[in-house]
Amino acid sequence: MSEAPVETEIKLLFEPGLRPRLEQHPAFAHAVRAAPRRELSTYFDTDGLVLHRHGYSLRIREAGGELVQTLKKAPSDGAVHERNEWEWKLSQRRLALRPLDRAIAADAELNGGLRGATSKFVTEIQRRRFDIRLDSSRVEAAIDEGVVRVGDREEPVCEVELEIKDGPPGPAYRLALDLIEHNPFRIGVESKAERGYRLLTGIVPPPVAARAAPVQRRAALGEALNWTAGAALHPFVANMSAARMGDPEAVHQMRVALRRLRTMLVLYAPFLDPEASERFSNSIRDTGAVLGAARDWDVFVGQTLSHARDAGVRAEWTAALEEGATAKQEDARRGVRALIDGKAPGELVLGIEAWLCDPEAAAKRPKSARVPIADIIPDLLDRLAEKVARRGRRVTHSSPPELHRLRKSIKKMRYSVESASALYPGKAVNRYVKRCKKLQTALGTINDSQVTIRLVEEIAPSHSAAWAPAAGAMLKWNAERLKDAERDLARAWRKLRHSDRVWR
After folding, report:
1. Is 71 in contact with 41 (CB distance < 8 Å)?
2. Is the pTM of this model over 0.70?
């Protein structure tokens, strides 16, 4: 797989009828444009959709009298807009299996499994291509209008893709940002293939976990910034479709991705341009607040009420609360849909990408981008550990807001140690991270108890006598779990406080 060419593209979506406005943008107006052409693409897979399950899409495209077979594999980590791609010209509309077998040879489960592949859906697209020069870069822009069709079901396509052909990617990201700023465009998430599979199966795309992405031992600061940011942005973008459709886990993973991104800005803050870093932090905070509101109601409806029932709270009382909570949950989900349909996610993702395309410009001092990460990470981790120590000094006597601040610091500490885990002994890192998680769990339960109080009050105001039995039973159970969590907190804090700093 390492031999595959890598395609870097940016996709923006627009509403029908806005293409002329897009073509009036100076970058397009002064570009070399090709004649529009019709493209008919047929996508293939096995009856068990083995290609789709392994992250591939396979198509034959007919355009301009030529037939081209294309295999793509979506990224599993790191880069947000990159995918591996292979192409072969064909003389007839039939899959060429031999080159496919060579391309997928590294995936043992796919070997020999494509003999039964048949057509599953088609796309009919009117494509307009533009060759755009941006400073030292050349970008191919493609404006696509048409449909994705599965049987008698179809979905419209109105999108522009910016593919970087030569030179640095920064100018392309800045062009995309300019388009979003001055037009009602939004960042594209699903490929045409993914849209086709969604129509074919009727299944919401599964959530993508926001995981740690350890930096390499010999990486410089600039490389570490790009790697950790890409690893956080990928699940943020990948989960947007499922989150828009109301998947609670996708919303959660978008929040985790934002936290990991925010942690990068905090961890490397002494070396970053403070003005840009603060603006990105503010954008992350605002975006996270919308996702957080939905997450609070998802947890309350999907977990808290069932835990209360299991603990003995009468079902008719939890059912009454659930009815009110479900309405609030749907309001919060509408907020998530409005967020994803708006400009903010695209501005955040493309802004970060554009910023980190030039690590020397992103750094406070240009030479900092070349500093080996192994030389600076111990001091950076010490800085976070000292904040944790300060915030946890009076842990058993801290107020809920103080414990919430400690919880946020513990998350940043854990994510930062995970990102540096390749630099230190694995067992020691795992032990430290495990203790962070236990403390995080205890603090999380305490935070959930405070959220429960707030949400119950929203559903069942204290001045309403009708809600008294349900609210009273729920809050009594909530107080009991809070006591258990406070005992767990003291034990978890002692263990972490006495842990060795694995980076020293």
Report:
1. no
2. yes
